[in-house]
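Q: Could you write out the predicted structure for this multi-component system? I'm mainly interested in how the pieces pack against one another.
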Amino acid sequence: MSLPHLFRFPGGIQPDAHKKESSEQPIRPVPLPARLAVPLVQSSQGSARTIVTVGDKVLKGQCIGEAEGNAGTAIHAPTSGRVTEIGRYPMAHPSGLDTLAIVIEPDGEERWIAREPLDMASASHEELILRVQASGIVGMGGAAFPSHIKANSKIDTLIINGAECEPWISCDDRLMRERSADIVTGARILRRLTGARRVLIGIEDNKPEAITAMKLVVQAAADDGGEISVITVPTRYPTGGQKQLIRVLTGFEIASNQRSSSFGVQCFNVGTAHAVCRALVHGEAMVSRVVTVTGNVEHPGNYEVLLGTAVADLIELCVAKPGTERTLMGGPLMGFTLPRLDAPITKSSNCIIAASNTLFPPAPPEQPCIRCGSCAQSCPTGLLPFELYWSSRAKNYDGAVHYNISECIECGCCAYVCPAHIPLVDYFRFAKSEIRARNQEKRAADQARARFEARSARLERDKAEKAARLTAKAAETRAALAANKDAATDANDAALIAAAVARTQAQSQAQPPASGQNGGATPPEPSI
Amino acid sequence: MIGITLALGIALGYAAIHFKVEGNPLAAQIDALLPQTQCAQCGYPGCKPYAEAVASGAAEINLCTPGGDEGAHKLAELLGREFKPHGGPVVEKVKVVALIDEQTCIGCTLCIQACPVDAIVGAAKQMHTVIAPICTGCELCLPPCPVDCISLIAEPRTPQNWRWKYPVTGLKVVA
Ligand code: SF4
Ligand code: SF4
């Protein structure tokens, strides 16, 4: 097995890793919280439809929300207990908005629903994919993309992402050290689903224990057909970004509007591979995940957290030290400040950091850009962050689009190196959301225009049809009259007219005195 | 010389017939800049009629209320005319959608006839409802409703339409 040639992506940074704080303790369980609020939306592409009602008793791993549509993923009860509420709860999102969640009060028994492992030898491809979807598996590295969609593509190279490049986070490291067998089994299943020729497990060289553990499993297990290799990649942020890892391992550069599968590559996080193994081989739906809790806390480490556990509960468990100013979800570079601590842990929350001003000093005031170009040198996607910054700052969105703001992965390298302390990523996030809103508005306007025109056309057509009908009818009447003309005599005509006059008078007499519209003021004319 | 003249004449004549642009291209360009609310506040029965009026020079460029000053600027730039501020009060743009109180609705179909984008569904003596994603918030359905059961509500905030704030830049203290 020859080591593949490694490629390089431009830029990147090497910040202090701060991994040791949390990576040296085994993964620990978390005591059952008083309440678990499981949001219905757990994937980036779709949501689940509730199939329980308030008061229902549920077992651990029981499906409580079915996958909605092709892209949806199911959700499951994280523990046994009772559904107490289906209501709006805050979500783990920088906006602090709330979303529908199923609230479960644990009964403390942790009773599993009957687990039904799939017989891997006989199960068909479709059965496996359906099970991945029904087990609620989404990408656990942060993007939360439904895994059954990714696993259902035919590719050449399967990449398992164990790079974990962002400082402070160590959940994948611990997972690889402790559960390497499951990860490799999951990788095998994913290889079978995707038909990949080779599997590359990329791990940064600052995790020697994880590399050893993974290599041991890969070597011990008899290889069933394809090549699985554990590849050590140099430690450089953001190697763990999906695009960057693909670039390092295969040399492909993938633009934001392209899919990696069209290059014959697909990338899954180690956590996702682990979850696939649990779901298919052990019949356990995704009900928990490993979360790093670190920063300014007494007991940093990695915890097996039930989905729906409030961040506040985790912080309480790990005991925040005095001086904690805010709480970050995700890493210090790609993550965001949680606006509310009652937000739940979801399938994509990998890390909670209690931030103090000593550990994460507030950014000094922004100074004018000195055009040093450091940001451009550090950008892993080869953008010109200072150009993006000028455009975004001036709200010149066309300019930002011209400099390819959509390719920015918000990795924060540029802001990290900027000597003028410009919060570049904040500007880019702002500009990106404005551009997105504008595009949405544009789409809505196009739709409104099309609907307005369709409606106008329909009204026109109705009018034309009505006019045509009336003309036809008039012509018919005229023709009938003309046909009768010869037979009709003047006397006949006079008789017709008299009859018509009599009819009209009879009608006006029969009408009740008009009321309402004219207040009943004018009685009808007496008949002659 | 005569040959060239004839050849070019024929070519141009051919082009004029075969590559004739459907409709009025200027009106279409103007229409593309209008917000397509179809609210008729400009005095024309919709965005397209207003665009046609502006293109023919019959209408001013500052009559569109939802477009506001920003829209008038865009039109001024496109047409090379002088910018005129929008006359009316400047309202903060918040996207609203109509909401029918389904308990009160008597099913009279009047709002359906008023809606310029067919965003209301319902039938005579049956409850009506607004298809929110299609509603432009033009308010045209409000006046015809005999029981006043339509209100405008701000579009709910979701992670999909939530926006990041403009970074607040620290003010520098001088002296
Ligand atoms: S690193 Fe900062 S100061 Fe230097 S060019 Fe980029 S934005 Fe300007
Ligand atoms: S945040 Fe965007 S612009 Fe800045 S370095 Fe990362 S990818 Fe480049």
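A: Regarding packing and overall arrangement: The radius of gyration of chain A is 34 Å.
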